[in-house]
């Protein structure tokens, strides 16, 4: 199975909004609403920010939102803050009960 | 609050078998899916596989021939074995809980395993 495709890097100034895309196929993102997004700071374990395409776990800022259209999922960070600088990964359930991560996106706050 | 902790050797010789154990506290292992994920230095996340509390397993097809994940409910632990390792298997290995909608909601801190002679 191939990794989901994400842009290598995205940047924005404080207060701006940015969107990270995650592209898969009809056998993963397009076929199920089991898309999650994770934030990873250097040297730390990933932390879930969005699950089931658009749901936020308790304690995650409402500046983070998720959506999906066809085979592409998106994570939007609004009101960008310095603490949002991190790596972000998407994931999806796939056919045959498998699981796959995205290639990862480095977010830089300018 | 569920907590996970990986344990095992930090150095494994090429061609040998990597073995890690994950101890779960704050919740029972007798529900949910339990997963292993790895991250080579400076690279992205790679899903290795998961085991359901019933014992059903699913593995990444690219690693399937070398991977075994097992469960010990009496100790609230699950384990990873990866055989015939090479330098390409050097990575931080995470154990994690996979929720019923396939969200990895709890992660261990990760343990670096280096494959070298």
Walk me through the structure:
The complex is a heterodimer of chains A (110) and B (117). Chain A has strands spanning 9-12, 18-23, 35-40, 47-50, 64-69, 72-77, 86-94, 98-101, 105-109. Chain A is mostly beta strands. The termini of chain A are far apart. Chain B is 0% helix and 52% strand. In chain B, the strands form 2 sheets. In chain B, strands 2, 4, 5, 6, 9, 10 and 11 form a 7-stranded mixed β-sheet that branches. Chain B has a 4-stranded antiparallel β-sheet with strand order 1-3-8-7, with no helix packed on it. In chain B, a hairpin with a 4-residue loop joins strand 5 and strand 6 (57-59). Chain B is globular. The mean pLDDT of chain B is 95. The A-B interface holds A 1, 3, 34, 36, 38, 45-48, 51-52, 57, 89, 91-93, 96-104 and B 35, 37, 44-47, 50, 58, 60-62, 94, 98-99, 101-105, 107-110.
List its traits.
heterodimer; A: 110 residues; mainly beta; six-stranded mixed β-sheet; three-stranded antiparallel β-sheet; 45% strand; globular; B: 117 residues; seven-stranded mixed β-sheet; four-stranded antiparallel β-sheet; 11 strands
Topology:
The complex is a heterodimer of chains A (110) and B (117).
Chain A: E1 9-12, E2 18-23, E3 35-40, E4 47-50, E5 64-69, E6 72-77, E7 86-94, E8 98-101, E9 105-109
Parallel strand pairs in A: 1-9
Antiparallel strand pairs in A: 2-6, 3-4, 3-7, 5-6, 7-8, 7-9
Chain B: E1 3-7, E2 11-12, E3 18-25, E4 33-39, E5 46-52, E6 57-59, E7 67-72, E8 77-82, E9 91-98, E10 104-107, E11 111-115
Parallel strand pairs in B: 2-11
Antiparallel strand pairs in B: 1-3, 3-8, 4-5, 4-9, 5-6, 7-8, 9-10, 9-11
